[in-house]
Amino acid sequence: MTNALRLALLFASASPFTLSMPAFAQDAPTGEDEHAHEEGEETQAIIVQGTRSGRRVQDEPIRVEVIAGEEIEEKAIMRPGNIAMLVNETGGVRVQVTSPALGAANIRIQGLEGRYTQLLADNLPLYGGQAASLGLLQIPPTDLGQVEVIKGAASALYGASALGGVINLISKRPGDAFEAEVLGNATTRNGQDVTAYAAGPLDDNSGLSLTVGAHRQSGQDLDGDGWYDMAAYDRLTARPRFQWDGDDGSSVYLTVGAMTEDRIGGTLPGRAAPDGTAFRQTQDTERLDAGVVAQTPLSDLATLNLRASAMRQDHLHRFGDVTEDDRHTSLFGEASVSSSSGATSWVGGVAFQSDGFRSETFPAFDYTYDVPGIFAQVEHEATLDLTLAASARVDFHDEFGTQFSPRLSALYRPGNWTIRGSFGGGFFAPSPFVDEIEAAGLSRLEPLGGFEAETAKTASLDVGYADGPWEANLTLFGADIENASRLREIGPDRVELVNIDGTTRVRGTEVLLRFKQDGFTVTGSYVFVDASEPDPSGAGRRAAPLTPKHTAGLVGMWEEHGKGRIGIEAYYTGEQALDDNPYRTRSRPYLHLGILGEITLGKVSLFANAENLLDVRQTKYDPLLLPQRAASGQWTVDAWAPLEGFILNGGIRLRFGGH
Questions:
Q1: Per CATH, is 3-657 categorized as 1.10.287.770?
Q2: 3-state secondary structure of 296
Q3: Which of 172, 225, 224 is nearest to 199 (CA)?
């Protein structure tokens, strides 16, 4: 594909999910707002525009779960430096540590591995087609207005990187008055965060915002074994944004981001791993990205939508005595036309994405995936209570050939009930960066060859009920994955990446019950996941590692606008099957307790948050370090429980301007 064609496609796009901010919203795992709200509270409908017909979220056949403003504010004072806690406390979503040495983590949705989850910012892949595991920990929640979660194969909407689902981070938009916020935070583990957000109008049609942050953490060896249980890091972030809205319905949104971070883990200075040698593990990261989202009416019934982004991320890794210097790049563009007539709406368009990797140290792993594609979607209101939707995408992958990704959905809403059904298929383009390689580097991996695309079929059935202050939801879900990639040992210090024979199966249930009245909200949730895969040894099937069958949560929150909030939470995590762990084959279940308090005095808020009150820590039960280095190069077992133990954090939030 020529450079001219790449550049032309780069500046075309269509916003997949753009939602208006509600004046009042809670973390809503059902994604609904049809239940009754408290008297006197002003509400606005959450509009889903990119699925892509501009319907209210409760009218969408595809289930979209929304974490909205007040819940984001709550999580921002619990963990101001990253969004891990924000998404981890959503039912069916689990943040899994992939590298205990550096603290890297990814997002698993409904039991599927984290590499299948597409992470978007303002509907753009600003973190690449396959976001690195540390990307989740490098995004502050300071300027987020909304977070959307789509579970199950979403390749029909987003292509190869959304095989398991999508996390879409929606930023705040500038209002008609200047506003600003500064947040300072410190922890008992010697961590500090300072973030600032400012936004305001430039004129009647445009506005500008800026978010900056400085974050640091000192390394912590909590069990005295000479290995960092909490990696040290210093990170700076900056992101300006521009929004313009024309009188004719046209709009343009521009975003630019920059981030730099130095992270240190492994053995402490002067200490050694079990083989008697020092093993310092570090990663220096620099990332630049830019994106644009635009739309303009073509007629009274049709709209042209454009989306484009570019990202470059440079890494300098150190794994003991091996240094790896590499670069990830991503280019993306999409153009579509959407229209609505009567009970039917449709959208169709073209897309292009290019993801590349270049290693100065191990050029045998260099790759560039160029993927043009076409897509279409139709939604039809068959009756007042029944809406049907069908979407499909064809990607012409230059490495893995033509891939077809369909999705069918239906919504039925009789009275207070909401019933959704969805079936989808998709694919994932394998790369060297499975969890073990991100944790240990490329030095022991054989060059890839003969790979096939990983494919999946997912299905779900949601039944919800809302009446007054009560809301309940039951979800049944399942997934079958073919050609899943796994590491296989081929020697004491060599591994290869292969497609495993057989089907990886996931079956599960999510249950939610919520009561909300007079400022009090109590939410109970339970998730059951039965995930199994072919045993790499060829001996039948085994439980998928690091996938607890049973998780549950109970959260109580009282909040009054302008005065403060107080909350208590309890989360249970059941047993998990463990792989290549010499100390145990199954993890211990554990309970995570936390309490949060915030007092608001005008424009000033003081907050304190206590996490992991029972001081659950994996190294209280077993060593984190392996007796000898694994064939992949890892020195640690997988993280199946918290590594940092009890943490208390607190700080101050200052607000300026606003209405």
A1: no
A2: strand
A3: 172
